[in-house]
Amino acid sequence: MKSQKALGVLFFTVFLDLLGFGLIIPILPTLAQDLGASESQIGLIAAIYALMNFAFSPFWGTLSDRYGRRPIILTSILITATAYLIFAQAHFLWILILSRVFSGIGSANIGAAQAYIGDVTSPADRAKRMGLIGAAFGLGFIAGPPLGGFVKAEYGLEVMGYLAASFSGINFILAYIFLPESLKDKNREAAFNYNVLKSIRDELRKPMIRELFVVNFIFITAFSMMQVTAVLLWEQYSFYNEQEIGLVFMYIGVCSAIVQATLIGLFKKKFGENRMLVIGVMLLAIGLLAMPFLQDDLFIPWQLVALLLIALANGFIGPSLLSMITQYCEPHEVGRTTGLNQSFGSLGRVIGPIIGGALYEWEHHLPYLVGPAILMIAYSLAIRLKKSAGSEGSVQAEPISSARN
């Protein structure tokens, strides 16, 4: 019962965090353009956010192993609130960039949040619980983007920034009051080595972890190439304004929430995590490939079908990867490993927007052709992982999983 309550509070804090983040999404590319940024520079601004994620994810994860999940989550929420206060004053490009730096640092706590779930759930339930946190992300996108588009259009940038900051403030209060510590045995001996590249290199020496990290990197890279260019694509080729784009993101959020809150457990039982990963990579490749060809008159319903495939792919890939990583890593390094996985994925969020923005500036179809092409590498690795797991037994049967429980 305690773990159920804790997960409920974590779900709500993630939802509030993503609600504030979702406010910004539909207007960020056009705001950057209005402040003088080109399409490739928009990609660089998105990459700055991801670069901070890359640098700070293992930092927060290691701290959470040493001192507990709760203080790390609370601190990162305060940093996120600061980022939104700066964003409210983003009337110059450098202020917008500064706000994205702070936002990237604050949002790098996802490894600690994922480790929290690993602390309070059994291996058999972990993919489903990871899916519930994914559903919180989806719900944040249901309410955030349309609200952001509306507030920006009706009340301006400052009000939108202060509104996002207020959500983080409420988030902090609720987490402070209701979110208990999940880590029973803090690892005071955890190596506090802030060399991200060395830590990742050490993890890449572990075969199963290496393949999972690489699949995550490719998945995030391909997805980020789309994410940074989709607003421009919809604005320029389907002639949608900020409020309409906010509604499109709301649709994506609804699909993601439904998939991750209600279907992940069913798919897990039917396919298993390894097969879910393989199917998810293929669905993502198909959805991305279709996007640029389904604009204007074809947007409804066919673009929405492509976005549904992408939402379904995210529901398959994300929880499966996280569940497998938390079960293959050492029990006393869950926070560190999930933080490093987030950091490795953040490399994709650095590279994806830079490549995606540059490719889009060259020719708008290219990000949606290159993304599926590199996903074929992830597909091959996912197939190999499935075969390896089949020869060794299911993930849940691994000794590490048993030792944790």
Fold and architecture overview:
With 405 residues, the chain is mostly helical. The chain has one domain (2-180, 197-404): Growth Hormone, Chain: A. It is built from 16 helices and no strands. It has helices spanning 2-24, 28-34, 39-67, 69-87, 93-107, 110-120, 123-155, 157-178, 196-203, 207-237, 242-271, 273-290, 299-328, 334-362, 367-392, 399-404. α6 packs across α14 (334-362). The longest helix has 33 residues, at 123-155. The chain is globular and about 50 Å long. The two termini are 17 Å apart.
Count of discrete domains: 1
Order of helices and strands: HHHHHHHHHHHHHHHH
CATH architecture: Up-down Bundle
Report mean pLDDT, rounded to a whole number.
82
Fraction of helical residues: over 70%
Query: What is the CATH class name?
Result: Mainly Alpha
Short description:
This protein is 83% helix and 0% strand. With 405 residues, it is mainly α. It has a single domain, classed as Up-down Bundle (Growth Hormone, Chain: A).
